[in-house]
Design goal:
Elements: H1 4-14, E1 26-29, E2 36-40, H2 45-62, H3 67-83, H4 85-96, H5 100-120, E3 128-129, E4 136-144, E5 147-151, H6 159-170, E6 175-178, H7 184-203, E7 213-215, H8 220-228, E8 232-238, H9 241-253, E9 257-261, E10 266-270, H10 276-288, E11 298-304, H11 308-321, H12 340-355, E12 359-361, E13 365-366, E14 376-377, E15 380-383, E16 399-405, H13 408-416, E17 420-421, E18 423-427, H14 431-438, E19 447-450, E20 462-463, E21 466-467, E22 474-475, E23 484-492
Parallel strand pairs: 5-6, 5-8, 6-7, 8-9, 10-11, 10-18, 11-16, 15-16, 18-19
Antiparallel strand pairs: 1-2, 3-4, 4-23, 12-15, 13-14, 17-21, 20-22
Helix pairs in contact: 1-4, 3-5, 3-7, 4-5, 4-7, 5-6, 10-11
The protein binds nicotinamide-adenine-dinucleotide.
Nicotinamide-adenine-dinucleotide (NAD) binds at residues 151-156, 178, 180-181, 219-220, 223-224, 227, 238-240, 243, 246-247, 261-264, 295, 394, 396, 422, 469.
């Protein structure tokens, strides 16, 4: 077995992580071969509270730095990410089990959001609004909000931090990050790159307050400290719906702001008019890519009965031949599940599907002899008689439930008839169907695509979903507003005091 700990340590050193950060109680395993590749320390309550206090102190200074200047720090972070792209991408592959192109793609996404945030740093604008009172002006102003907590999941170990951090920093907020306990090494690397950018920024004349970017490694208990701390004004939490339900309620109890990015149960509809070559590729990537471990992974497929047999037969052959194996080797398209628990959950879901009459192709473990401590699996395609049981849940593994439909509106209704509302797609060349799918009566998801799979979003759009996906929005469009507070200002430049709505109060 290749020793991945040596390579991981060397990549971390290249990225600026000191060796003494790599000891502690929390073992880090690579899903590629199951090996323990390092250890890190769980932050104690005291360390977490000190980190939050330093971030809160940093806020007092950072909020006063002009936004375009704050953007310059993020520009430098983008430069460090460009310089570190190959090392960080490789570390993502080792720690999260992503293919080389997906590991690099994740870092590219970080670079893209930094570029976006730099532009944004000159566009944090409010409105001027017509007022009913003479000699008055009404406007809105956007101000920094305060310490932003980021809790992230294992499957996008670094991109999710950057979506939040790049925006939060230009908006004037310090960031305290609690990464997944399964992927703390890539988080240490990001923090080291941030420090490199901060040193260059300081050298160019503006001090970077200590505590502008704080990293707290550890598990759920560390996340809970962030969630409950009164000085953390916003928590952006990415992970399972169970996590979001717990976090959302605790934040609501103290009236803190939440951006919740939770589980998805994404569907696509393949209509008779679809370009079937394109649909096949779109479905295959969305369902099997990243071994089904994306929040936007395609999990449900509705195929019109006129094309069902031919299309599903071709899909099955793609499932049978897709290359499953080490994500560190070029050519393998499906890497490992994150751990044994993920494999157990997948097998349990397949059992429940069988019990409801589902016919399963694939789904079995592969390479156990070569990789006894890693969990590679042949993606599963399950033909279901109806949408029931496990089809209504997100199982974070490559399972695609396939169902037949005959009426388009019924297919749209079924696609909406699950608790989650993240991503959706229709494959069609029928303009009416495409537009109906995108209309108010169509998909109820935060992401609705035509002739593109459910996964693989770009940073320019707002990212997030409805219902049990949490309702949060991150990344592009006007998602920045979630990181700022809005003040409405009315200015009277006249000599009288007219009251709104014609109210009089003459003393
Ligand atoms: P998870 O819920 O197990 O953990 C996510 C993070 O939350 C971890 O950092 C964990 O330590 C922390 N956490 C868990 N419970 C907590 C609590 N009560 N209080 C504070 N912190 C807590 O998720 P995971 O297994 O790492 O990731 C997979 C899940 O994430 C899937 O459901 C997937 O759909 C979802 N996800 C969603 C998006 C999105 O943008 N919607 C993106 C990526 C992943």
């Amino acid at each position: 077995m290749i020793d991945l700990s040596v390579e991981a340590r060397s990549l971390l050193a290249t990225l600026g992580v000191a060796d003494d950060a790599l000891t502690g109680d929390l073992p880090v395993r690579s899903p590629v071969n199951g090996q323990e590749i390092a250890r890190v320390a769980t932050a104690t309550r005291q360390m977490a509270c000190d980190g939050i206090a330093s971030a809160h102190a940093a806020f007092q200074a950072w909020r006063l730095v002009p936004a375009p200047r704050r953007g310059e720090l993020v520009r430098l972070l983008g430069e460090e990410l460009r310089a570190g792209k190959s090392a960080l991408g490789r570390l993502v592959s080792i720690e999260a089990g992503k293919s080389p192109s997906e590991g690099l793609g994740e870092v590219q996404e970080m670079i893209d959001i930094c570029d976006f945030a730099v532009g944004l740093s000159r566009q944090l604008h409010g409105l001027t609004i017509a007022t009913e009172r003479p000699d008055h002006r009404m406007m809105e102003t956007w101000h920094p909000l305060g310490v932003t907590g980021v809790i992230s999941a294992f499957n996008f170990p670094v991109a999710v931090w950057s979506w939040n951090a790049a925006l939060a920093l230009v908006c004037g907020n310090p960031v305290v990050w609690k990464p997944s306990e399964k992927t703390p090494l890539t988080a240490l690397a990001c923090q080291a790159l941030f420090h490199r950018a901060a040193a260059r920024f300081a050298a160019s004349g503006t001090a970077v307050p200590d505590g502008l970017s704080v990293l707290l490694t550890g598990g759920r208990a560390v996340g809970e400290i962030l969630v409950d701390h009164p000085d953390v004004k916003l928590v952006s939490a990415t992970g399972s719906t169970d996590m979001g339900r717990a976090v959302g309620q605790r934040l609501a109890a103290r009236f803190a702001r939440a951006i919740l990015e939770l589980g998805g149960n994404n569907a696509a509809i393949v209509t008779p008019s679809a370009d079937l070559e394109l649909a096949l590729r779109g479905v295959a990537f969305a369902a099997m890519g990243t071994a089904g471990q994306r929040c936007t992974t395609l999990r449900r497929l509705f195929v019109h009965d006129a094309i069902y047999d031919g299309f599903v037969a071709r899909l099955k052959s793609a499932y049978a031949t897709v290359t499953v194996g080490s994500p560190l080797e070029e050519g393998n398209l499906v890497g490992p599940l994150i751990d044994a628990a993920a494999m157990d959950r997948m097998q349990r879901a397949l059992e429940s599907a069988r019990a409801l009459g589902g016919v399963v192709t694939g789904g079995h473990r592969e390479g156990a002899a070569d990789w006894p401590d890693a969990y590679y699996v042949r993606p599963a395609l399950v033909e279901m008689p109806e949408q029931a049981g496990p089809v209504l849940d997100e199982t974070f593994a490559p399972i695609l439930y396939v169902m037949k439909y005959s009426d388009f509106d019924r297919a749209v209704a079924l696609q909406n008839a699950v608790p989650q509302g993240l991503s959706s797609a229709v494959f069609t060349t029928d303009l009416r169907q495409a537009e109906r799918f995108l209309s108010a009566a169509g998909s109820d998801c935060g992401i609705a695509n035509v002739n593109i799979g459910t996964s693989g979003a770009e940073i320019g759009g707002a990212f997030g979903g409805e219902k049990e996906t949490g309702g949060g929005r991150e990344s592009g469009s006007d998602a920045w507003k979630g990181y700022m507070r809005r003040a409405t200002n009315t200015i009277n430049y006249g000599t009288t005091l007219p009251l709104a709505q014609g109210v009089s109060f003459d003393i």
